[in-house]
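Our preliminary data section would be incomplete without showing what the modeling component actually yields. Below, a chain of 256 amino acids is followed by its predicted structure, encoded as tokens that our downstream tools consume directly.
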Amino acid sequence: MVREHKDGGPTLTFDEPLPSPGAEPAVSTLGRLVHGIRRLWPLIRPLSAEAIIGCLDREVGYPDIEVRPQRPHWFIHERAAARPTDRQGLDVLDPWHVDPVVEPVPELSAEVIESWLERAQAQASPAPGTHDVGWTDLWFNATRALVPGPYAPDATAHVALHAAEVRAVANVPLRWREGTAWVAGPTREMRQFGARAPITLHASNYGLVELAVSANWSLWSEDGSPGRTALIDVARDLVADGWCVTYGTEFFHELA
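Predicted structure:
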């Protein structure tokens, strides 16, 4: 039985690779974000994304809360994953912020996310002489996560998830894609129980791109579990590319 962690799962946080002293960054903050997402793609596929777009002070590269673009809230989601008719169907359309620009797409990919954020950042700055429009926060609260083969033989139809907030079990369907099993959430049933997606992501851009990965289900967090091994593998890929683990090694001791 797979358990959901109460109040969210253990989190690994990474800071972007830093340029050499005195050198200008070779890639934009958006480019560095998308690079991080691509590294996680073998394990985690977003089904929706919610962004806050702010105005960054050009001198320091830091968001200025006193200056805001006209449309600061943006939300994108896979069209087929919204508003299901059955309890096991995906239900990802739940933006946190007021009056977002909502865009349904056939399928999310790193390239789709990049072009969506480029459009969000293309709006006019209210202070063009001093501030640039740019993303500041990005949440992936609906995701599809790879279920390792040892846990999901071919006959497996669903994952039985113990919801943390209530004494209930949500049966979350497995989806088979090119011979591999994936589990996605939230489903309508998960929403009724207050359960989170298997793995969630948060990225921030406050002078430095930071990427946080939360393993909300035991399959990706418990010592010895095949899902944890897969998570550590993609984390090591990020580290090999120069990203620095800044939080989470007390729990994910393999990265200490």
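Residues 11-144+201-255 form one domain. Residues 28 and 34 are 10 Å apart (CA to CA). Preliminary results of this kind motivate Aim 1 of the renewal.
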